[in-house]
Amino acid sequence: MTTHRKGSLVPESGIYEVIHDKNKHDVQKHEVTCIKGRRFPPCRGCGEDVQFRPIRIAIHIEDHPHFS
Ligand SMILES: [Zn+2]
Q: Among 14, 46, 55, 66, which residue has the least CB neighbours within 10 Å?
């Protein structure tokens, strides 16, 4: 499964699992919503080593033709 790194463009809006660097940042698994066209940010705990994996893609309402 494709993972994305800090600084790369979010390819599709949706829910992403955050994969923290266990050696630097010991936190439980969690998910975030990311918006297409923005950049994946660094983590305050593990910096550049954070990764993001798509769980469920969903078009942002402002980009959807029924609502924009
Ligand atoms: Zn982290």
A: 66
